[in-house]
Amino acid sequence: MAAPSTSKQFSRRINSYHLEQTANTSRERFFSDLVAEHQEMVINTCYRFVFNREDAEDLAQEVFIEVNRSLDKFREESKLSTWIYRIAVTKSLDHLRRQKRKKRFSSLKRIIGIDDPAESLPAPGSDNPADVLVGNERADKLRNALDSLPDNQKTAFLLSKYDGYGNQEIADILQTTVPAVESLIHRAKKNLQTRLEKEFRSEQ
Question: Which family is it part of (predicted)?
């Protein structure tokens, strides 16, 4: 696998796309500033879901392409950053669903020999630059436990515990209420604790 892109390389990739779409200097400058301000947080947010830097950067590029296409439709009903991170979460969850669908169809193909309609979907990178962080068995169990959570619980938990968002910010991103966010985080913790206690007891 190629080495992870630097922030400058990522900026060049996304801005190169943007320059092909518009000749408006003020909009170009605004978009470039927007990417510079939010790119690392968007990449990190995507990474929390996919655990692969290269996939996270690809998703972040998709996020900013959609931001560029939809910027004129933004109505300031929420903060611009909230809107951007909502897109990042949606893209990340869609990516995970495609992966799960690919695995399901691959399993069916092995069992009954059907053609795999998910073959054209991009496979996740096999070489993970996060191995330093998640290479040990217990970290893998934590990642698997996170992946077992319902999407809304997983999203609320990751945004709260890993990205440091407050409950109101998470509510804005998920377009729900603060009490609903608090409930999601509480249920996520409870489900994680139950799953991990069972996993760790099996080691003894």
Answer: Belongs to the sigma-70 factor family. ECF subfamily.
Helix runs in 113-148, H state only: 131-134, 137-148
> In 22-38, which positions are buried (b, 16+ CB within 10 angstroms) versus exposed (e)?
eeeeeeeeebeebbeeb
Tens digits of pLDDT across the chain (204 residues): 333 445 555 555 554 444 445 446 677 888 888 999 999 999 999 998 888 899 999 999 999 999 999 888 887 777 888 999 999 999 999 998 888 765 544 443 443 343 433 333 333 343 443 343 344 566 677 788 888 899 999 999 999 988 888 999 999 999 999 999 999 999 999 998 888 888 767 665
DSSP 73: G
Distance CA 196, CA 62 (A): 34
Can you tell me the distance from the alpha carbon of 42 to that of 60, in angstroms, rounded to the nearest whole number?
Answer: 6
Residues whose CB falls within 8 Å of the CB of residue 37, separated by 6 or more in sequence, listed in order: none
Residue 89, token pair as written in the block: 């979460």
Q: 136-204 adopts what CATH topology?
A: Arc Repressor Mutant, subunit A (1.10.10)
CB-count burial class (<10 Å; 0-12, 13-18, 19+) for 93? middle
Q: Other C-beta atoms within 10 Å of 82: how many?
A: 19
CATH code of the domain occupying 1-126: 1.10.1740.10
